[in-house]
Specification:
Radius of gyration: 17 Å
Strand content: under 5%
Structural class: mainly alpha
Order of helices and strands: HHHHHHH
Oligomer: single chain
Number of helices: 7
Number of domains: 1
Largest sheet: none
Length: 183
């Protein structure tokens, strides 16, 4: 219980960076929605991602989603050692991709069709934004306060295990069920 409280405190300590990451993410969702460029390349990436799920049963789908999201969140945290540059780049690209997909979906169907993103996003997006914010925090911490970096890095990994992974488990179950039964 103490470790969970410490992890929640670490998230509070990183809240400024989480807010910055969230603002960048939302901005690039709008940019991706309003200015969908590189359509052919992005559609190839999306098609490749969809192929990963072909022929999988429900539990394999959930596991694949969980592994991919867990790896992405861990990379977002660890990449903070790039002085926060990679967490920002990851945020830009993910926000843009979500905006791009939202644009495609609304063109082919309607704005209401975006509800499919909402259920799993309730848990997945906060987990991703927390991970990216922590990565940015670590990058800034490495510049400003090198003596606490390793302590904060350890706290970030505990936060990953105690907060982020449970959120990703919930997100994977919801998204897996949606993918499996709506396709």
């Amino acid at each position: 219980m103490k470790e969970l409280k410490n992890s929640l405190d670490f998230i509070k300590k990183s809240k400024k960076q989480i807010y910055i990451i969230s603002a960048i993410f939302l901005s690039f969702i709008f940019i991706g929605f309003l200015f969908p460029v590189l359509e052919e390349e992005l559609l190839k990436i999306i098609s490749e991602m969809q192929k990963l799920f072909e022929g999988l049963n429900l539990w394999q789908t959930i596991l694949l989603i969980f592994i991919n999201n867990s790896r992405a969140c861990l990379i977002a945290i660890i990449s903070g050692i790039s002085l926060g540059i990679f967490p920002i780049i990851i945020t830009l690209s993910n926000g843009y991709l979500i905006g791009f997909v939202s644009n495609i979906v609304t063109k082919k169907s309607s704005l209401l069709e975006l509800w499919r993103l909402f259920p799993h996003g309730i848990f997945e997006i906060p987990a991703v934004l927390i991970s990216l914010g922590i990565g940015l925090f670590l990058g800034i911490d490495l510049i400003k306060n090198k003596k606490n970096f390793f302590s904060n890095f350890e706290k970030s990994l505990k936060t990953f295990i105690l907060i982020i992974l449970p959120l990703l488990i919930l997100a994977a179950i919801i998204e897996g069920v949606l993918i499996f039964y709506l396709n």
